[in-house]
User: Fold these one by one.
Assistant:
Number 1:
Amino acid sequence: MSSLPKVIQDRRHTQSPEIDHSTLSNYKNFKVTNTHLNIELQFDTKKIVGLVTYNLNVLQSVSKIILDSSFLKINSIAINDKDIKSFKINEREEPRGSSIEIDHQVNENDELNLTLNFETTDKSTAIQWLKTESNTPDSVDYIFTQLEPNHARSLLPSFDTPGIKSTFTAEIKSKYPVVFSGLSLNSSNVENNNVYKFEQTVPIPSYLIAIASGNITSAKIGPRSTVYAELSVLESAKEEFSQDIERFIQVAEEVAGPYIWKTYDFLINPFSFPYGGMENPNITFLTPTLISGDKSQINVIAHELAHSWSGNNVTNASWEHFWLNEGWTVYLERRIGAKLHPEPEKFRSFEYLMGWNDLVESIKQLPKFEYSRLIQDLQNGKIDPDDTFSSVPYEKGANFIYHLETKLGGLEEFDPYIKFYFNKFSKQSIDSYQFIDSLYEFYPQKKEILDNIDWELWLYTPGLPPKADFDTEFVDKVTTLTKEWISKANVFQTVDEFKSHFTQISLINNYNEFTTEQKIYFIDTLLEPLESTPKFWSENSIASDSILSIYQDLETTKNTEIKTRLFKFKLNAKKTKFYQDLADWLGTVGRMKYVRPGYKLLFAVDQKLAIDTFNKYKDFYHPIASKLVEKDLGLSK
Ligand code: BES
Ligand code: ZN
C-alpha cells in the first residue's frame, strides 16, 4: 500500500481490497480452487436441481462455513463426501438473503470439498423461465440467468461476492441446447444424453456465471466468435454483428493487452432480457433490441467485449467499487470505437457528449442524490446494489479515467499505463484504492500531478463532475438545428409554415446525413427546454406536430434508442394518441433501460394506463425488472 493523498488515505479501510458487506458469507477465510456444478434444468417444474462442489483451501481457521442463498432449498450438505447434519438456513434478511451456516471446524491450510445439494424455487431472482413466441406456431421453453450484481445466491448456494474467484467445471442437463459462461467440452457430433459439459479455466466471480437453454441455434461469425440465437433471429443477428466482431477484439487487444478467454461468443436472448448486454465470460448475453438493421448499437458489443479486461479479468472487489467495472469499460468501449473511426478523437468526444446527457438525466432520476457518488456507500450491505444502479458509475467513471488520461499527458502517456493496470491486477478483485496505488506506482515522476487531482470531488462528492473540454464538431450541426426549433417554436401558426421554414433549415444543417447517434442527440437536445419549462412542447403544440411530421424517419426507425426518446418527446408534448402506442410497446421489451423510464413516462400522463399496462405484462418481465418497476410506480416499497 502506497501512501495516498490524505483525503483518500483517511477513507481507506485497513484491508485492501475492502471487505464486501453485500455478502453474508465468510469468504475471506477461504480460497476456492475450483467449483463444480452438476445440475438439471427442469422445464416442467421450473426448477434447477442439482449440486455444487467447492474445493476449498482454508486461509484462516474458523468454526463455521457460511454461504449465501436467496430463495433456495438446500437438500443436503457434505464435506469430503460425508453428510453434514449441523447446518441451518438463517432467517432472511433484506437485501442479502438467507445465509447458510455450517458448523464445522476448519483449520488453516486444510483442503476440503464442500458439496451442497440444492434446488431453486419460483421466487428465484436469478432465473427467468419463459415461453418464446419466436418459433410460432409452437411456443418453446427457454431459460436464462442474470446474476449481476448479487443474484448468484438465488441460483446456487455460493460465496456470492465479486471479491472471490474460482475456476469452474459444469455438467448441465437439459432437453434443449445449453450455453454456459465457459468453453464447451462437448463435441457436437457425439451423443450427449442431454448433458452439456463446460469448463472455465480463468477464475471468475459468482456474478459471472451464466446459463441459458432453449431452442438455440448458432452461426460462426469470426475466427474466435459464434453467435447463438433462436433460428428466427439468427440471420439478422449475423448481419448486424459479424462484420465488426473480430476487428473489435483486435483493437481491444491493442488498447488493453491480450484477450485471455480464447473465444468471444454471444447469445441473443428473448425480448424480456433485462439489460442491453451482460458480459458473461465467453458468452455475452444480449437483448434483441440491439438488432436494428443499421449496426447503430454496435457500441454495446464493444462495451461487453471490453469487460473481458475491466470487470471479468480485473474485477471490482465489492459493489461499492462498481465504477471500476463500468467506468473503465465505457472508457475502453470508446477507445475501441474511436480506433475504428476515421476521426478518432472527434468521435470519442461525441460519445462522451452523448454520455454526458445520460449522466445529467440519470442524476435527476436517482432515488437518492447520494447514489451519484463514484464510490458508493452501501451501508454495510443494508443497501441493495440493484437500487443504486444508474449511469453514474458508467459516465462519471469514464469521465474520471478520461480526466486522468488528460492530466497525465494524453494518450501517449496513458496507453502504457492501461496495459500495466490490466496486467498487474489480472485475475484479481480490487478496490478503488488499489487502482490509485497503481497510478502512483506507474508514474513516480508524476507524483505532483496525481497529488493535485481533486480526489475528494471525483470519488466521494455526489453530483455532476467537472466537464472536460470535448470537441464539439459532431454535435454543432445538431445543436444549431435544435436551437432554431426552440427559438422559433412559437413563431409560426401552421404545420405548413413550420415545414417550409424547417425543411430548408434541416437541409442546410445536413439532417439527412446525420448518423443515428446524431439523431439521438437531436432529440435529446430538443428535450432540454423541458428542464426549465416542463410544458414547452405541449404549449408549442403546432411546433411539436411539425417535428413529428418533418422527421418521419424517426418514426419508422428500428433503433430503440431513438424510439424511446421519441416517446418521451410525444408524451411530454401531450400527444394523447401515442399513449397507447407506448403502452403496447412496453409489452414487447423487457430491457430495463427502456421499461423503467417508459412506465414512469406513462405514469406521469396517465396513471391508470400505466398501472393497467404493468399488470397486464408483469409476467413477461424478468423478476428483477418487475420488482423495480413495481417500486417505481409506487406499487411496492
Ligand atoms: N454489466 C452490465 C450490466 C449490468 C450491470 C447488469 C449491473 C446487472 C447489474 C453491462 O455491461 C452493461 O453495462 N450493459 C449496458 C450496455 C452498455 C453499452 C452501457 C446495458 O445493459 O444497457
Ligand atoms: Zn458494462
Number 2:
Amino acid sequence: MKELEVAERAAVEAGKIAMKYFRGDFEVKLKGRNDLVTNADVECERHIKKIISSEYPLHSFLGEEEGSQGTSKDVWVIDPIDGTTNFVHGVEQFCHSIALVRDNELVCGAVYNPVMNLLYTAYRGKGAFLNGRRIKVSRAESLGECLIITGFPYDAVGAEESDVHAKTLAAIASLRGSIHDVRRFGSAALDLCRVAHGICDAYFEYRIKPWDIAAGMLIVKEAGGKVTDINGNEASFMSPHFVASNGLVHERLLSHLEASK
Ligand code: IPD
Ligand code: CA
C-alpha cells in the first residue's frame, strides 16, 4: 500500500502549507463570479504533485487548479484545497483530497483536514480509516433519522446554474420535513468522509467535479456505504450528479431527487 502512504504524506504536507496561510495573509482571485482560488491552493497542488512525482515520475495528474498532465493509466486526482471558500473566510471546514485512479478504477484515497488533524484514508478492498481507526457508515434505516448533506457548485453559470440551484433547492424542500436536517458544510470531500464515518447519513450534489469526490467516494465505499449517480446508476468519480449514503436509505433519498443527465 505504498501508494496510500504517498497520498497520506502529500495530504499532510499540503496541510502544513495551508496552515501557514489560514487566517493570515494570502491572495484571493476569482475564477468565476463566486468561484475562489488562492495562492495557497496553487502552492498546495504543486507541492502534492512534487511529492507524488518523486515516487512515481511517470504517473499523470488531474488537479483542480492546473488541470490534466501526462498520459499514464495511473492518474492522481487532486483537490489541493477543497472548501476554498471556507478557507478564505477562516472557517475550519476545508481539506486536501488525493486519490489514485488506475485504468479508471479508484485504488486509494486520502482526505486531510489540517485544522482538526483528521486524516481519512482508504485502499481498495482494505476498509476505511480515520487517523488509523476503522470507520463505518451509519445504521440509520429511515430517512426520519437522517442528517443529510448537500452542496452547490461555484462554477456553474447562466441557465445551468439556475437549473442546478433549482434542483438542489427542490430536493431540500422535499426532504426537509422527512429528515432530521440538511447541512451545507462547503467541502464535498469532507462531506463524503462524514458519511463514511457515520456522523452524517447521506450526501448529494448536482454537478460536482472529479477532484471533489474521487478520494471521498472510495472512502464511503470502503466504509460500507453506497454511491450512485443521481438516477441511481453506478457512479464513477467522473459522475457529475452524485449521491452517497449508508446504503440503507439510498433508494428513499433518490426518490426525493430529480433525475438529471
Ligand atoms: C467545492 C466544495 C463545495 C461543493 C462545490 C465544490 P472547492 O469545492 O467541495 O462543498 O459544494 O461544488 O466546488 O471549490 O472549494 O474546491
Ligand atoms: Ca473542490
